[in-house]
Amino acid sequence: MNFEGLDPGLAEYAPAMHSALDPVLDAHLNSSLLQNVELDPDGVALEALPVPESVHIMEGVYSELHSVVAEVGVPVSVSHFDLHEEMLWVGSHGGHATSFFGPALERYSSFQVNGSDDIRQIQSLENGILFLTKNNLKYMARGGLIIFDYLLDESEDMHSVLLTDSSTLLVGGLMCATFLFLWSYAVETPGVTIMRQTNRFFFCGHTSGKVSLRDLRTFKVEHEFDAFSGSLSDFDVHGNLLAACGFSSRLTGLACDRFLKVYDLRMMRAITPLQVHVDPAFLRFIPTYTSRLAIISQSGQCQFCEPTGLANPADIFHVNPVGPLLMTFDVSASKQALAFGDSEGCVHLWTDSPEPSFNPYSRETEFALPCLVDSLPPLDWSQDLLPLSLIPVPLTTDALLSDWPAANSAPAPRLRAPPVDAEILRTMKKVGFIGYAPNPRTRLRNQIPYRLKESDSEFDSFSQVTESPIGREEEPHLHMISKKYRKVTIKYSKLGLEDFDFKHYNKTLFAGLEPHIPNAYCNCMIQVLYFLEPVRCLIQNHLCQKEFCLACELGFLFHMLDLSRGDPCQGSNFLRAFRTIPEASALGLILADSDEASGKGSLARLIQRWNRFILTQLHQDMQELEVPQAYRGAGGSSFCSSGDSVIGQLFSCEMENCSLCRCGSETVRASSTLLFTLSYPEGNKTGKSCDFAQVLKRSICLEQNTQAWCDNCEKYQPTIQTRNIRHLPDILVINCEVNSLKEADFWRVQAEVAFKMAIKKHGGEISKNKEFTLADWKELGSPEGMLMCSSVEELKNVWLPFSIRMKMTKNKGLDVCNWTDEEEHGVYVYDLMATVVHILDSRTGGSLVAHIKVGETYHQRKEGVTHQQWYLFNDFLIEPIDKHEAVQFDMSWKVPAILYYVKRNLNSKYNLNIKNPIEASVLLAEASLARKQRKTHTTFIPLMLNEMPQVGDLVGLDAEFVTLNEEEAELRSDGTKSTIKPSQMSVARITCVRGQGPNEGIPFIDDYISTQEQVVDYLTQYSGIKPGDLDAKISSKHLTTLKSTYLKLRFLIDIGVKFVGHGLQKDFRVINLMVPKDQVLDTVYLFHMPRKRMISLRFLAWYFLDLKIQGETHDSIEDARTALQLYRKYLELSKNGTEPESFHKVLKGLYEKGRKMDWKVPEPEGQTSPKNAAVFSSVLAL
C-alpha cells in the first residue's frame, strides 16, 4: 500500500486519522443490514485465540479463524502468504519478521531483519524469503539465516520488489528509479511504490496517482493511466482488468475516493468507475467462480463486489482489529485465506473453510529436530587412571593449541581445595561421624568461585580478609564488624512473617523497612529523607496525576512510617514506581535479583548514584505546578512557589562556572547543583594534615585544567575552569566517593593524624580506658567542631566534624572551617544530620546502613518526649547509638558514602503543616482503562455524595492477588523446608462493599489493577483472576491503576472507617497500606481460640451462615459480603461482646465440628447443614 496520501500523523501511529479518512457509512445504506456487524475496533484479544465453537465457518463465506500477536504494540507493516509452503509472513515497523505455520498460526520463526527501518515488502522464493527495507534488500532462509545482504543507495527510499522470472528481480523506489538488481533505470514518473505483473506487462503505481504499463524485456512505457488526481493507495490486476483505489484532491486537501477506477487492458481505456460503500485503502482480486474484488478500509470494513457490476451493501463485513487501523492486507494463492495486520501488532486470519490451505500444492515444511549425535560411553572423571584416548578427536598434523613452548610456560602446583567455611565448622553438630550444619548461604549451591587476581585495585578488593588459619573459629573480619552492623535477614516459617520477632531488632517506636523486596538497597536513604522534617512535610503534601510518580509514592511511604508504632514497613509500591523510571534503568540503579543477593557491584557507588537521581527526580516532580484534575485540591500545598521547587530551595546551590582561556578570553555561565562530590588532594602520602573543611572547600570551589572550546580562538584550547558559589543551600549533601584504595588510605591517614595530634596536645600517653572530663578536654584543646569523647577509644577513626561553618566573602569567595562558639554576622552553621556508610562483609556481599540524628519533633510524635538522639538504621534493625559512632569510620569494614549537613534552625524557615491532599472526590465514579469495558459489565455502584462514609462506618474489604516471582526455598539436611525468599505478590483486584444503610452489601469499589510487570501465576483457582483481565487492551473489567485505588483506600483510612474482612493483615501488607489496629475487624481473629488453628472463610460461612462459597474460584465481592455477615453474626452471638463465656462455648463447638469434618465443607449431596447437627445446638440455644 502507498502511504503517501495518508495523514502525516500516521508516522507516529496516532490512533486518530485525517478527518477525510475516518470510516463513514453511506447514508443510503439500510441500517438493518449492519445490525450484526461489530464496529468496536478493540474487540480482539491479543493471544492467538480460535473462533469460539459457537461460530460456524460456512463454506464460501469468509469468517475469522484466528488472531495472533506478531509483536505487541509494534504496527504490522506488511503481510505475505508463502507461495511454496503453508506459512504466513509478517513484517513490522520495527524491522522484525515473524512467520506462522498453517491455519492455526503456530509461530514458526522470528528474527530481526533491520535494526531501525520498517519492512516494506516480502517476497517468497523457493530457497528463502526476500525482505525489502528503505535501503536494504536481504535474502534470508526461512529459519532466519542470511543468504545475502545487499545495501542500496539510502537516497532511493525503496518501496516495492517484483520477481518477474527466476532470474530477474525489480526493486522500485521514490527517487525516479527502478532497479534490475544491479542495474538502474530512470523512470519518467517519480515515486514507484507498487508493482504488479501479468504475462504481457509489469505495472508501476506512482505516488502521483498514475499507473504505467511497461514491457517486461525493455522496461519501456507502453501505456499510462492517470487514475487519481491526488495519490494512489493500491491497485491489482487480473486477466484483462486493472482496478485501482486512491485519493483525490479537494479544496480541503486529499480525500479518499469512494469510486474505484477500472481499466480494460484490451482496449487500454477506462470503463465505468465502481462506487463502493467503504473508504478503500486496499484491494485485491479474489477470482474463484467470478472476478470478485475485495475492498478493505483502514477502519476494518471489507466489501466484496464485481468490478463490472454494482456494489451491494449486504456484502460488507467487519474485521475487528486490536489497534485502531488496519495496516496491511494479503490474499493466499488458493484464495481461501485473507490476512489482515493492524497497528497494534496483531494478525487476523479470515478463511472461507474450516480447514483452509494457503497454496494449491505446498511442499512440506521442515521443522527443527533435536540434535542427534552418536552416543559415547560415559566416562568417570574421578578415576585417576582413566585413558583420555577414549575420547575420539580428529587426526591433524597442525600444532595444537595446548602445545605451548617451554619458554612460555611454567609448572604450577594444583591449588589446594578451599577450606571449609568457618561458620559451617562453628555451627556443626556431630551425630556419630557425620556432621550437620545449616547452610550459611555464602556461595551458590554446588559452585566454587574461581580466585582470579584482580587487575585493578578496586576498593572492594581490600575488604577481603584472609581466612583464619585456626579454621574452626569465626572469620577475623566478623570479630571486627559489630553484630548490629551486619546484614539482617528475615527468617520465614510456615506462617510467613507472622511469627517473626521484629521487636527483637527494634525496641523503638520508629519504623524500619523490610529488605527482601528487589532494589531495597536504598532503604537507608529513604530513612534519611524521612527524618528531614521539611522534606517529609513537603512530600506528604504532594499529590499529582502521574501514575508512577516517585514523590507521590514516597509520600505514601512516609505516611506509613508516621502511623507505624515500631512495626516495619515495606516500600514495595515506591520501588515498583522506581523500576518504571527509564532514567533509573539507564543509570544502572535497577539491580537484578542475583546481583543484589550476591552483592555484585559496589554498593557505595550505587547508593551515591541513587542519591543524585532521587534528588533530581523529586526536584522535577515538584516543579510540575499544574493542579491535577483527577485529584482536585491536591496542589494547594503551602510549599508551592511560582519559581523553583522546594526541593530546589532546600538542596540547590547556585554557582558560577568560569572558563579562562590562555588567550585571556573568559566565559561565565550560571548553573546549580543539588549535591557535591568530594575531591581529594593529589599525592598526600606523607601524612600531611588536611581538615575536612579544607577538602570540602576545595570540592565546592573546584578548579581544574581541561580542554574546552574557545569562541575567541575558534578551536579547543587548554582552559582553567573555576567554580564560585552564589548562594548556599539549606541542606548540604556530599557524596564521599571513596571508591578505591587511594581514597580509603586518605581517610585512614587523616584519622590517624587527627588522633596523634590530640594525643600530642595532651602532652603524653593516654591510658586506653582513661575517662575525660569537660575540663580535661578544654586543656587538651580538642579540634573545633569535633566531638568531646569520654575515652580515648572514641577518638580513633574520627576525621569528620559534627559542625562546620560557611561564609560568603565580599569577593564572592567561600570560607569553610570547623565551627566554634563565636557568633558572627553572615556565617551559616551546618550540623551533621546523617551519614550513610557501606559495610564491607565478604560473607554477605556487604550492606548499607545509616546513622541519623532524629530530631525533637519525631520523638514528640512517637514517644512524647523532647530530645535529640542518634540512631543506627539497618533495614528493620533500629538501635540508639552514641554520637561518636556516626563519625567513626574503620576503613577495613565501615566506609563513608553520603553525608548530610543541615543548616542550623532550618525548620523555622518552612511551614511544616501537613494538609491531607486526598479528597472525597477520589471515591466518585471514574473511567475504566479497559477498552472493552461496557456499562453492562459494571459490578459495583459508586458512592453518591450523600453516602460518603463517616468515622466508625463499616466497610467490607477483600483483595485478590497474582504472583510476580515464585518462592525460593531449600530443603535442610533434616528434611524440613526453609524459605529463602518469599514469593512476590501484586494486588490484582480490590473490592469494598457498603457495611450499613439501605444498600448494605452492595460494592462501591470493585477495581481490577492494571500491571505492567510480568505475571508468573494468576492463581485463578484462588483469586478468580484470568489471563487478560489485567490487560487494558482486552480486559472487560473495570480496570484502574494501583495509585487510583490506593488513594480510595487511603481516604477511607484517613476518614476513620472500620474495615471488615477475612485475613486483612496479608491484604493490607500486599497493598502496602498501614491501617491502625482499631480500624480493622478481622473475622480470622474474631472466630479464633488461642493456640488453635485459623479457620477459613468458607468453613465459617458454611457453619454459621449456611452458605457455600468459593466453589470453583474465589470472588472478592462474595468474600467481602460474607465477612460482613459473619461480623454481624459475631455481634449477635457475643451480645456485642458482653457475654464472652457464651461465645467461648460457640467457638468450642465450632472447633469440635471442624475436627470431625477435617475442616472441609461437605459437597451438596453430602452432609446436611450444620444448623441441623447436634454440635450446633449451643448456637441455636443462643
TrEMBL record:
Single biological process term from Gene Ontology: nuclear-transcribed mRNA poly(A) tail shortening
Cofactor note text: Binds 2 metal cations per subunit in the catalytic exonuclease domain.
Keywords on record: Cytoplasm, Exonuclease, Hydrolase, Metal-binding, mRNA processing, Nuclease, Nucleus, Repeat, WD repeat
Activity regulation, short description: Positively regulated by the regulatory subunit PAN3.
Cofactor(s) needed by this chain: a divalent metal cation
Entry EC number(s): 3.1.13.4
Enzyme class: hydrolase
Principal location listed in the UniProt entry: cytoplasm
A GO CC annotation given for this chain: nucleus
Keyword Cytoplasm: yes
UniProt-annotated location(s): Cytoplasm, P-body; Nucleus
Top-rank lineage group of the source organism: Eukaryota
One GO molecular-function entry: poly(A)-specific ribonuclease activity
Binding site for a divalent metal cation: D958, E960, D1067, D1119
InterPro entries in UniProt: PAN2, PAN2-PAN3_catalytic_subunit, PAN2_N, PAN2_UCH_dom, Papain-like_cys_pep_sf, Ribonucl_H, RNaseH-like_sf, RNaseH_sf
Description of how the protein assembles with itself and partners: Forms a heterotrimer with an asymmetric homodimer of the regulatory subunit PAN3 to form the poly(A)-nuclease (PAN) deadenylation complex. Interacts with PAN3 isoform 1/Pan3L and isoform 3/Pan3S. Interacts with ZFP36.
Record family assignment: Belongs to the peptidase C19 family. PAN2 subfamily.
Role this protein plays: Catalytic subunit of the poly(A)-nuclease (PAN) deadenylation complex, one of two cytoplasmic mRNA deadenylases involved in general and miRNA-mediated mRNA turnover. PAN specifically shortens poly(A) tails of RNA and the activity is stimulated by poly(A)-binding protein (PABP). PAN deadenylation is followed by rapid degradation of the shortened mRNA tails by the CCR4-NOT complex.
Swiss-Prot/TrEMBL domain comment: Contains a pseudo-UCH domain. This ubiquitin C-terminal hydrolase (UCH)-like or ubiquitin specific protease (USP)-like domain is predicted to be catalytically inactive because it lacks the active site catalytic triad characteristic of thiol proteases, with residues at the equivalent structural positions that are incompatible with catalysis, and it cannot bind ubiquitin. It functions as a structural scaffold for intra- and intermolecular interactions in the complex.
Protein name: PAN2-PAN3 deadenylation complex catalytic subunit PAN2
